[in-house]
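Researcher: I'm comparing several assemblies side by side, and this is the next one on my list. It has 400 residues spread over four chains. Same procedure as the others: predict the full complex and return the structure.
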Amino acid sequence: MNASRLPAAASARAPRADARRSITAILDAGAECLAADPEATVAVIARAAGVARATLYGHFPARVDLVDAVFERVTTQADETLQTVDVSGDPEQALRELVASSWRIVHRFRAVLAVAERELPPGRVRKHHARHLDRLTELLTRGQETGAFRTDLAVEWLVTACFTLMHAAAAEVVAGRLDDDHAETAVVESILSVCTPSAR
Amino acid sequence: MNASRLPAAASARAPRADARRSITAILDAGAECLAADPEATVAVIARAAGVARATLYGHFPARVDLVDAVFERVTTQADETLQTVDVSGDPEQALRELVASSWRIVHRFRAVLAVAERELPPGRVRKHHARHLDRLTELLTRGQETGAFRTDLAVEWLVTACFTLMHAAAAEVVAGRLDDDHAETAVVESILSVCTPSAR
DNA sequence: CATAACTTGGACACGGATGTACAAGATTGG
DNA sequence: CCAATCTTGTACATCCGTGTCCAAGTTATG
């Protein structure tokens, strides 16, 4: 379905500089557009990328392929950013820092996650997301073992709670009901409260 | 657009028993279908209601009208259920009970909320939702005054956190990553941890 | 610079959802 | 029982997004 005029996937070799430029433009625009509107049209994304629709279809045979590529790219970039956070020290402090670094990213691409969840084959999402889940899971588990975090709730739930609260904080900022500074305090403190053993 | 053959909105007076039956059937099916799939088609909903598509359009001139009506109905029913919860006693205990009663409802209709948020004019959602927000806000405020709940975070944020955690728990149950009992414990305990002053 | 690789714009087929329009039949309610 | 009210099936007009196909123009690259 795509081997005639335009190089897609892993057909021949050495894509031209030309093509590479288009591809990254499309991927960038894709991330942007899908983040703003999960139902963004292929046509819209192409226009935003400053490229003809036909060109886009040349590189991504179907919408699904585009979404998948965008999703992969976004998660990869996020991963690179988050790898700079040191999570090996004091669990509580590490969680503070990880959350502070994560919540804006989590937010910026929540919509991309949503579209991926809806349009990609089952499992694909979790696979790409694994790194992030794992990082948090590991930290929380370690914290549970050292007694820094509560053990009466399952790690999986704690992970979910963390992500959820980050999303919520970000959404509130977008809605204008919370400013950046307060949001960061709120999300960090709330998450700590949830993960920490209650002294009540 | 709808005054010729079928009675819509508030046209003439006294709709026939016949019609009232259809309407409630449609509303029920609408809630059901939209809860299962936010993108449920008008045709699907009509079929589920055991009614012809034309009949549905007779009562709800456009998809939007249907969604609005379903949303209103759902929030109203939820409100009736939640009014049975006594929130005048000990704040902590009251919050426990309110959350326990709420999260299943929140869950059952989270998708309806989603569709309403996407298809209804801005503001419409918050208006219908006001009762629920208010109830929680009131309780939390009272608790802050009596010292039962933390005051270092704004009530608005605490409200958001509560709703968010309920949604999350519901979503986990749906995804099969959490069973009902554990979910209830998790959501109640987590919310309490967030709202309660930290003794750390 | 010549050739292969890439882009472009527009036309088109297709499917699915929305909303309109009727004419004929079934119910209801006074 | 009769007239107004409802329902139904079906057909149709529209719009919109996806994906395909080309022929002609551009651009990169050995």
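Model: For your comparison table: Residues 60 and 66 of chain B are 6 Å apart (CA to CA).
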